[in-house]
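Records of this kind hold a single protein each, on a pair of labelled lines. With that in mind, the following record should read easily:
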Amino acid sequence: MNRYFQVTAWLITWAAIFGCQLLQFSLQEVTLPLEWAVTPLTKQQVSAVKECDLENLVKERYPDTIKTDELSSAYTPDSDCDWAILALAYAERADNNETPSESAKAAYSQAVSNNFGFALATPIFHRYFGSVSLVEAPPFATQEITDVQIKYEWSGLGDSVNYSAEIHQANSTPTIAVTPNDLSASINTDIDKKLIQALAPALTDLLPVESSFTLTPCFDNYPNWVVHLTFKDHTTVELTTASNFLYFGGPWLTEIDAQNYVQVSIAFAKALSELVVNLELPIGQTAGMTCFGDAVFEKAFP
């Protein structure tokens, strides 16, 4: 009898240890945002995203009969692809304008922490864009900005827009010049330099991609931005977008140390829009957009 209890106790202990190891393997510790700079995806990671049949597997594993609070127990994720499928299942059960739940963001974070390519997988990108902070800003962004150049063109339903703006002495007493000259009289030159300096910490969530790309899933709103920033140590960075995934323009693209990046959040668009609005510069007259979606990963990693 004693031997029976010893064996039983050993089995229970072994099962508990094995179960904990299994849980740790399934739910790894996630530390987001990642430190700058994120290593570009390997060929194996790109293939893993391309081979993950998100939209079909989510239907197979999580049919409509499974309620949101039952998703976590319906299938045990074992890979980054599995976590991405679970994240998509959560997203499909949420309203279009609903912020992802903590469970949804946890599944998303598990998927992207080991392979950030899943943040750019088209159905995941459209549903989780900007919901989780992914990458810290580059170290040079801790400095003050000294100069800003903005070039903007817009077309759509309304009068076209085309201008350039330059801001100098941005870290002391900003001076602002705008062309064409007829805009100079209407802009607000008395702005708080904090609005300019806010562009630097907004350089977060930059993910390395193979190719720069444009997302134009919407029509009647066509922004084209080029923003050049100069920092105190003379480091320069240029951010561009001709996309309209975001109403103001975005996602934003840049090249740093010969590597292409895309920003997977609204951080820079928000900071720039606050600056432009306070300068009282025009952004275009479209009151809304009609959107149909667009491929993302396939453009970033052609």
